Amino acid sequence: MFELLIPVSCLFFxxxxxxxxxxxYAAIIAWITIIIVFIGGLPTWIxxxxxxxxxxxxxxxxxxxxxxxxxxxxxxxxxxxxRAAGVAFIIYAPFAFVEEIGxxxxxxxxxxxxxxxxxxxxPVYLVLWNxxxxxxxxxxxxxxxxxxxxxxxMLGVASAVPTTTRQKCLAFLxxxxxxYVLNLFRNAGVIITYTxxxxxxxxxISGNQEYGYSSFFWAHNIFAEGIALIFLIVLxxxxxxxxxxxxxxxxDLVQSYEKEIKSIVGTDKQSSEVQRD
Length: 277
Hints:
Blueprint: H1 5-15, H2 23-40, H3 42-47, H4 52-72, H5 76-97, H6 99-119, E1 125-128, E2 131-134, E3 137-140, H7 148-158, H8 165-195, H9 213-242, H10 245-276
Antiparallel strand pairs: 1-2, 2-3
């Protein structure tokens, strides 16, 4: 149900890229719909024992409130953030909404992941077009396993400020090929450690009773996501070195949100003082 809002959000993010008085309200609707979709994923993430995404979903509520306030005030940094989200959607949309394109990307990732597993000499074979099996255990590769989300987001960040043609080209080379290749090794690592039950000795904190799932939980939800997060931070730092204006943009963005949070807290304090008087 919530997935139906994704194209709606994408459409309004695109509207927000077009100059005009409508941009502010298009941006607000875009953020509201995408946050609703994000929160709608909570049951699935909790069922999969995912830790990072549920925390982000909960934090997205105050983020939405503050973002809406800043957009209504005409904050340039938040509008640039909205532009970055719009560009990210443009990149991601064809893979998410056109089945043939998405399936082609998944097939390519499966093929390259299989090559890496062969080079590592790990005994695995394909039982379906996108499903690996080794021994008793299987791992399915879906669109979320291709790295396209991270690529789209980082390219969107790179577009948040004006750049030269050289910076655009270098940013693309820094982001797309690097994330794609490292994601292949991430997939291979999860497949190996899960199907060989490498982390079965660790405590089962997943809450999932499926046989062997604990090893997948540690491999995919803890170690793989943790390493990916660290890598994205390093990549973002490299991107900021390549495009110095991104540092100013990030500083303005943090300052805007910090100021707005203080404004909200200050208003609450003043209200409390009035009530006490």
